[in-house]
Each structure stands twice: as C-alpha cells, then as structure tokens.
Amino acid sequence: MNCIIIEDQLPAQRILKKYIQDIGTLTLKATFTNALEAIQFLQTEEIEFIFLDIHLPKLSGIDFLKTYKNPPQVILTTAFSDYALESYDLNVVDYLLKPFSFQRFVQAVHKVKTNPHTDTSTTLVKELFIKSGYEHIKVKIDEILYIKSDTDYTELILANRKILSTEPLRYWETYLNKHNFIRVHKSYLINTTKIEKVTRTQIHLHLEQIIPIGRAYKDTFQNSILNS
Prior knowledge:
The protein has 228 residues and is an alpha/beta fold. The chain has two domains: 2-109, 3-Layer(aba) Sandwich (Rossmann fold), CATH 3.40.50.2300; 128-226, CATH 2.40.50.1020. Helices cover 25% and strands 33% of the residues. The strands form four sheets. It has a five-stranded parallel sheet. The protein has a five-stranded antiparallel sheet with strand order 10-9-8-12-11. Strand 8 and strand 9 form a beta hairpin. The two termini are 36 Å apart. Mean pLDDT is 85; it is low at 117-122.
C-alpha cells in the first residue's frame, strides 16, 4: 500500500520511516513537514493512507482533515491525547500516541483497508514482527502453538523456538482474536488449529505440548471449540 508521512519533527519522521521499512508491506511515496505541501502532492498523486501529525505549522492535522470530503485513510500520530475524541469523529483509522512501539504501529496499519470503498473485509495478515529485546523477529502466525504469560513478559512458543515479548497476554488475546487463538487459562492463549486432544482439564497440542484449562475459561472453551 502507498502512504505518505506528514510530520514536522525529524526524530518522529525517522521512527516512522524505520517502522515502514520494517513492516515490509508499505511503500512510502513522500514525506512532508507541513500539510499545505501535502495537499499539493495529493492533487496529482493517489495514495491509500497518511501518517498524520496533529500539531503542524500553518495548518493543523485536524484542520487538514476537515478540508477533505473524502480524504485518504488516516493514522494520526501525536504526543497529546486531548484530540482522541475529535479525531474519531473524523473517521480516522487509528490514533497513535507518541512514543509508540513497533507492535502498536503494526496493529494500526492492519486496520487500514486495502479498498475502503467496498464492504469486503480485508485479508487477515499471515505474518507479524515481534519486538524481542533490540530485535524485530518475523513470525508466521499459524506457526505459533501457544502464548504463555510469565510475570513481566510473554513467551510465544513455536515448534522450534521460543520468543520473548514485553507485550502482555491481553494484548495478544486482542491482536490474535481473528486468527483462531483463544484464552484457555489466565496464563495461556492457544492456537486452536494445533489442538490434537482435549481431556477434562488439559489440552494436548501439536508436538506433545500440554496446556491446562483454567476453571474460569472452561465453559467458554467448550462452547466455542468443542461444541462448534
């Protein structure tokens, strides 16, 4: 997808450019330090969406949006939370509060529709980048067996490796809710496509991985998986 950046702060520009490069599915067409320059560009160029700062010289991001009847899709980036309500009245895709992580950036990008003028849903992403320490590790979602919460981090368990993430389990539960993942215990989120056997208190996954079923999650699990 083609995108542009409208951001007057150079450090914020550099972060967005790095994230765009890392995600691998976006093409950055141009970067602008004010919205007036971007308006001229958009008169002749077609793009899918914009990373737009709110506090800009000459014309604010909010006022820029108000000049369009049918603007491109927009992901707002700002250090201030005061404009969140107003921004959603303008139908923005997401609102990134600086400083934001690469994982939060990816989550926002996944909300952008490849064709916003149709009612068809977007294809589910098949890969993601997991921030682990100073690295961003590419992982195929269907290769994740389960995710385990462990105090201050989570462990993503694959067939041949384990990846540590600082994102909490509730983040992964929300992020992967359309990818056949379900919470079965306060500490475990599993990939239901990897289930091989279910007993009264345990779930047996591929490669002999055994996950406990939490009492509080048992009914939901049975209703959504065993009775489906």
